[in-house]
Amino acid sequence: MTDGTDSSCLDHGRQALYEPPSSPPRRTALVPAGPRPAPPPAPPRARLFARTVVAPALLLTAAVVYNDWLLEFPLPTGLDPRHSYVSELYAADQRFHLLFGAAELLAAALVVAGSLLARDRRAGPVAEGGWWCLVAFGICSVADVIVPMRCAPSAEAGCEAVNPWHTATSALVHAALFGSMFLFTVAAAQARWPVLARWTPWVPAAALATAVSTVGPLFGHPGWHGVPQRAHLVLVGVWFVLLAAELRGPVGERGGAPRA
Fold first, then answer.
1. Has this prediction a pTM greater than 0.85?
2. DSSP H/E element including 236
3. What is the DSSP letter of 83?
4. Which of 17, 29, 210, 257 could hold 122 in an S-S bridge, CB 3.0 to 4.6 Å?
């Protein structure tokens, strides 16, 4: 018994002596963390809510705020609505220029936000271009407030009717507006949008006619230009309402794409 135990111990000892030493554990190199992955896109339901509920609400609010000239009836502006430009309300030397300027900026922000939320690539490049034109409309409207008229030519003798910077930004506002009207008219015909198809081209045509009727003072023929300009602003508000109504219907749900 003793001899067997001793020989077994010797065998284990010899095996331990001849076993190669175990390799040290490998060290894992620390890799610096890269940029975080982009968050996943918004779920379809949230995107649909933004397009069919939030965007229409913003455009409807913009339609009201954009017609802030209605405040000149309760406020003592000193301007005659029949013979004055609306931009005279926020001319640099006018009493309520901060109020009307802030309203213009708010309307611009509402249009930009509503247009960005309403965009949908399924609608195609024409409708996409229409929304981007409205974004440009809002940006140019901000520029229109940043470089206001120096004074009110309808109420102050010697005040020039043409302010080069303000006239240029106003022209850009109108170019972006009518660009959106043209593109959405085409998109409505291509994709069978029910609301715009019913009201175009009548609303854009009336808006263009009233806009052209306001250029008299720029060519030395002032008078009564305030009436068509205010009618033009009402029509722009109507345009925003039509877009909002279109987004609330089946067109908004399918992203403006043609019916299958």
1. no
2. helix 226-248
3. T
4. 257
Q: How far apart are CA 75 and CA 100, in angstroms?
A: 11
Residue 111's pLDDT band (cuts 50, 70, 90)? very high
pLDDT of residue 22 exceeding 50: yes
Is residue 205 a contact partner of residue 28, using CB atoms and an 8 Å limit? Answer: no
CA angle 164, 168, 171 (to 5 degrees): 140
For residue 81, which of 67, 93, 92 has the smallest C-alpha distance? 67
CA dihedral sign, ordered 168, 174, 176, 182: negative
**Contact of 150 with 164, CB cutoff 8 Å:** no
Question: How crowded is the C-beta side of 110, counted as CA atoms within 13 Å?
Answer: 22
Residues in the chain: 260
Q: How far apart are CA 182 and CA 190, in angstroms?
A: 13
pLDDT band at residue 240 under the 50/70/90 scheme: very high
Query: Which candidate, 201, 148, 208, 214, places its Cα nearest to that of 175?
Result: 208
